Every structure is written in C-alpha cells, then in structure tokens.
Amino acid sequence: MHNISLFRLYLMRAQYLLFSVGMGLIVWPGLIHHSKPWDLMTGVEQCMLGSFSALSLLGLRYPLQMLPLMLWELVWKVLWLGLIAYPAWAAGQMDHAMAETATEVIWVVTIPFVVPWPYVFDRYIRRPGNRWRRATEGTTYPPQAVCTTEERLQ
Q1: DSSP symbols for 59-100
Q2: Contacts for 73 with CB less than 8 Å, ≥ 6 apart
Q3: What are the residue ranges spanned by the domains of the chain?
Q4: Could you read off the pLDDT of 45-69 as tens digits, one per residue?
Q5: What contacts 24+ positions apart, CB below 8 Å, involve 81-88?
Q6: What is the pLDDT of residues 7-46, one digit of tens each?
C-alpha cells in the first residue's frame, strides 16, 4: 500500500475546498432562490453541481475515500473539452457561452497534479474487484487476501 504524504493529502483537501466553495458560491444561491421553474436539463445540471459541491466537503475529512469524486470531475471535464469545446473552437464555431464554460472547465489542469496516481493504480486497477457471485462455503474473497488494520479502516 502506498503511503500518501501529508503534503499530498493537503493538496487534495485544497482541491476539494476549491470544488465545494468555488462551485457552492455559484450554484447554491441559484438552487435555493431561483425565481422561476427551470427547464429539465438546467434543473438536472444545477442539482448535480450542487450535490458535487456538497459531497466535496466530505473530501476535506476523507480525501482518499472521496477520490472517485475527483476522478469523475477530471473525466467529465476532459471529455467535454476534447469532444465538445475543442472541435467547436477548431471549426471556428465557439460562441460566447461555450467559451465562458471552457474558461471555467479548463481548471481541470490542476487535478492531475493533485491525484496520487500510484494509489489510484493500485486501488482501482491492480486490486481485485468485489465478487460478482455469492461466495461458496469455505472460500474467502479476495482469494488468499490478508487485510491489514489500515486497509480495513479505509
């Protein structure tokens, strides 16, 4: 298991704080005080962003356990920039609203420097996944696994 440095944990906490406060200041006032009903996608978007900012607060206390939230933020922003914003920009079809969104989304560049990639690789790629079937009597999962106290606490 990787020993994540205290500095890295504080970097992750700073990123979660940026997510929760930065997005929270923008999204939550509109969620609480919107004057007219939103269309379907605006309502979905605002509620997703609000829940993301709220869940990011948990990252302040549990930075490693909330890492999938940070990875989700990284993936959707990279997808949007690569599949939506860049083609529009390259074709000269980027309007003001899209350019404004791209300016907000481009902050994704900070996330790869904060994520402890060796931990991600070991935790989500190399480690066996949870079983898909009921265990037969006398078997353990994962096979021949010995969990340390530290792993059980995570």
Answers
A1: HHH-TTTTHHHHHHHHHHHHHHIIIIIHHHHHTT---HHHHH
A2: 19, 52, 108, 111
A3: 6-128+139-153
A4: 899 999 999 999 999 999 999 999 9
A5: 81/105, 81/106, 81/108
A6: 999 999 999 999 999 888 989 998 999 888 999 998 998 9
